[in-house]
Amino acid sequence: MSFDSVEALRQAREGVQGSQYPPFGSYVWRIFDWIWPGPTLMQIFQNGTLLLAFGWILNNIGWPIFVRLIVLALFSAAPALLGTMLVVWKDVAVAAFYMLSLALAFEISSSEPSRRKKWLTAAAVFFLFCGMAYRFNAASGALPILIYIFFVNRGGASAREGLLKISAKAFAALLLLFSLVWVVNSFRFPEFTRLEKNTNMTSIMRYDLVGISVYSGVSFVDGKSGNPVDPKYLGKIYDARHLNITSHNDSEGRIADEVDNLFGRWIAAISKNPVAYLKHRFAVFSEYIGLHDREIFYVTHPNVDENKLGVSHTPNRLTPVLVNYVVSFKQSLLDRAWIYYLAGVLALFSAFVRGPAMRYRVEAAVALGSALLYLAPMYFITPAGDLRYNFWSISGTLVCLVFVFAGHFAYRRDKNVSSPSSAN
After folding, report:
1. What is the C-alpha separation between 243 and 22, in angstroms, rounded?
2. Dihedral sign, CA of 326, 327, 328, 331?
3. CA torsion 233→379→324→4, rounded to 10°?
4. pLDDT per position as a tens digit, 77-92
5. Dist. CA 137–CA 199, nearest whole Å
6. Alpha carbon 318 to chain centroid distance?
7. Which of 6, 257, 310, 410 is deepest in the core (most CB within 10 A)?
8. CA 121, CA 186: separation in Å to the nearest integer?
9. Cβ-based neighbours of 405, under 8 Å, separated by 6 or more
10. CA distance 408 to 107
């Protein structure tokens, strides 16, 4: 449990307050903490939901159970995912609910119109909402799954609806869900009192001002002395891995604690130095997706941070084995998120080259589309390059690869079956 995990549990027990973290995760954790106090049940729920939903997808593809178990084992052992799954982080919860929503929609795709199909659709939308509610930035990744839910529910006259019309309906539904997410994460329930304002964007804007100053050579950062902080000093403390590291590196305490008209100054700095802003954002995003030759940043959190909740961690025999396994891949390509995204794009291209006869290409496009759309806004808003922020994007990409592989296998099998009859 890292600091944000501890904070989520604290608010689950003492009452949600808002500020940096959406409270939805604390509401969910409150239920499991009441049943079994501590992080264990929450971790089992997150990882279990993720793996069971993925297993459901594999089952509906029609693979034998031993193949499904091998794929699930490989998925779980992927070092880019396992390190995050060892910690109670909301990144796993987002992926678990998105995976479950996708599994439900995939089930719907082979179901006849019935009351069951309506219930499955309602459940798919509900769990998608749950995934969105864990992170304010998760909405973009929900759109392809919503489009797919509308797509598999078309029937009769609506079967002739074009993709554009279906996408418009899905986008309208996304706005509605996002509005509900905003309400849930902005008010304390059941009192319905306004929570503290989320401060994440404030921290990101301050971080961006440091980055723009470093890459432009012109300081946009106020010092405690009342004068701008020397860009050379900012260059020494700047770290593209995390805004907190940059803040911690200000050992001389030069940077002012408060900034007047922060948003206006942030906009002005970007307008005057768009290239410097993009260079800074690219530096952070390069850490995010592992597009460098250094060790991958923050691959796991092997302990429980100090807290007043009575939660502690006592390592067992398996702890060092798993942690050492995860850490050993910090320099490996298997920990570099961009490798997965490139593989997903190439695989999806190969699926569409086959044409309409290729099965599961729609599902592969949905999984990869959700993964990459979840990733896209992070170029501009990520505060750090933690590997865990890629969790759903990598998971969705792996699901895409599974659908593509299953499609190619089915294509060859169908071709082999039809070849003898064609020859006759």
Report:
1. 19
2. positive
3. 80
4. 999 999 999 999 999 9
5. 14
6. 27
7. 6
8. 27
9. 347
10. 20
Look at residues 67, 6, 4, 65 and name the one whose alpha carbon lies nearest to residue 39: 6
Token couple for 198? 């989320």
What is the pTM (predicted TM-score) of this model?
0.94
Cα separation of 358 and 356, whole Å? Answer: 5
The neighbouring-strand residues paired with 188 are: 193
User: What is each CA distance from 296 to 96, 211, 293, 317, 331, in whole angstroms?
Assistant: 24, 20, 9, 25, 6
CB distance 124 to 108 below 8 Å: yes
Rounded to whole angstroms, the Cα distance separating 254 from 259 reads 13
**Which range among 46-50, 159-163, 203-207, 369-373 shows the weakest confidence by mean pLDDT?**
159-163
Residue 147 to residue 109: CA distance in whole angstroms: 13
Closest CA to 100 of 122, 76, 124: 124
Judge whether residue 230 has pLDDT over 70: yes
Angle at 143 between CA 140 and CA 144, to 5 degrees: 120
Tell me what percent of the chain is helix, strand and coil, each rounded to the nearest 5: 70, 5, 25
pLDDT tens track for 6-36: 999 999 999 888 767 889 999 999 999 999 9
Q: How far apart are CA 84 and CA 1, in angstroms?
A: 11
Beta-bridged to residue 262, according to DSSP, are: none
Distant-in-sequence, close-in-space partners of 28: CB < 8 Å, separation ≥ 6: 42, 93, 130
The tokens describing 117, both together, are 């199909």
Kind and range of the H or E run holding 193:
strand 193-194
Report the Cα 240 to chain-centroid distance in Å: 20
Question: What tokens does 315 get?
Answer: 């390592």
